[in-house]
Structures are given as structure tokens and as C-alpha cells.
Amino acid sequence: MGASGRLLHAVLMGAPGSGKRTLALRITKHFQLQKFSSGDLLRDNMLRDTEFGVLAKVFMDQGKLIPDDIMTRLTLHELKNFTRESWLLCGFPRTLRQAEALQRVYQIHLVMNLSVPVEVIRQRLSARWIHPSSGRVYNLEFNPPKAVGVDDLTGEPLVQREDDRPETLNERLKAYEDQTKPVLEYYREKGVLETFCGTETDKIWPCVYAFLQTKVPQIDQKASVTP
Fold first, then answer.
1. Cα–Cα distance between 214 and 4 in angstroms, integer?
2. pLDDT tens digit string along 14-51?
3. 64 among the known binding-site residues?
4. d(Cα 180, Cα 39) in Å, to the nearest integer?
5. Which of 26, 124, 128, 215 is catalytic?
6. Which position among 43, 166, 184, 208 has the lowest Cβ density within 10 Å, counted as fewest Cβ atoms?
7. How far apart, in whole angstroms, are the C-alpha atoms of residue 227 and residue 224?
8. Catalytic site includes residue 26
9. Domains of the chain, each with CATH number or no CATH
């Protein structure tokens, strides 16, 4: 429930490398919100070979973006199981069509947008490596794996995403900006957009924490802002 006793539907937005995943994990650790990540939903459905997973894999294998309608159907299908819980969407919606489709089914009460300088994002992503099957993310500068090049839990090799490489990153960031600019304007006009600016997740987090304290019950009322 939100601070007013109603269910709260929230969205966390930010460019690739802005720190969405880290902040989403901190938010759900401290506040009564169920997190839904579009990336995690895709990975799970692909591993289970669901209808959505099979469809998504076809597009990804061809190097194409997954169409709006597939991502929207996947997300809405998952949210149907959580009608009595407050939730946080991370990575969805990314286009105006997705935002409008979501709004037709659920009222969105709060949208948090992370604004991080492009130079900082470039630096972060150039040092980012992932464990493909789980989605675990490592950063060679501030969150390195225990052993070079392998996942801490499985010992399997880490990879650098093709679109994290410098030669494709600029195009990816430009595409994100073009896609999400209308989405941010859409939510700004509805009066639910709150933007948090900064260069470090640890400095943005206290502002997000203080803001959410007025909106969502905490899991432990005695907990501090410490991640």
C-alpha cells in the first residue's frame, strides 16, 4: 500500500548504465514494492520457452528490437498476478505506445527518472560485464567479480554486451533518448514525474529514499538510508 493506504504503481526510468538496477534493488529492500524488470522478465520467459520468450528470441537473434506489443503483453500478463501489491516497473515503458497501453490498464502514480551525464554512463558501461543466464552485473571499477572474468556464484564466464562496446554505445544512448523523451513528457503532463540528477548512485539514493518515505511504507520502519 502507498502512504495513503492505496496500492501504488510506480515506474523507474533511466538510460542504460544510469543505475536503475542498483536503485531498484535498494528500493525494494527498504520499501513495500514488488519489482518488475523488463530484462528479468525476458530472461525468465526465454529460459522457460514460453510463448513470449520464443517470440522475443526470434527478434533478438535477428538483432532487432522486440516490438512494443510483445513487451506490453508480457508486462501486463505478469502484473495480473499482483493485483493486491504495490509495484515498481524497471525498464518499462520505454516508448510512448507502451506508456499509453500501460495507462489504459493501470493508473501510474509515480515515475522516477534518473538523469546521469552521458560521459559517466560511457565510463560505467565500458567497464560493465554480465553473467548472461542470470543477468548479474559486474563493474570492473566498483563492483568487480572475485575472480577475473567469471561469475561469483557459478564460475561461468562473464561477457561484455555487444551494445556496451564504445562503437555501438553512442547509437544506443541516442535511441534511448529519442524513444523516452515523449514518455517523460507524457508523465510530466500527468504530474507524476520526479527527476533525480547525479553522477553516483550512492549520492542519488538518499534523495530517492527521502522522496519515497512520503509515498510508500517501509519494510522496517527503523531502517536507515544505508543501502
1. 9
2. 998 899 989 999 999 999 999 998 888 888 898 899 98
3. yes
4. 17
5. 128
6. 166
7. 8
8. no
9. 9-213 (3.40.50.300)
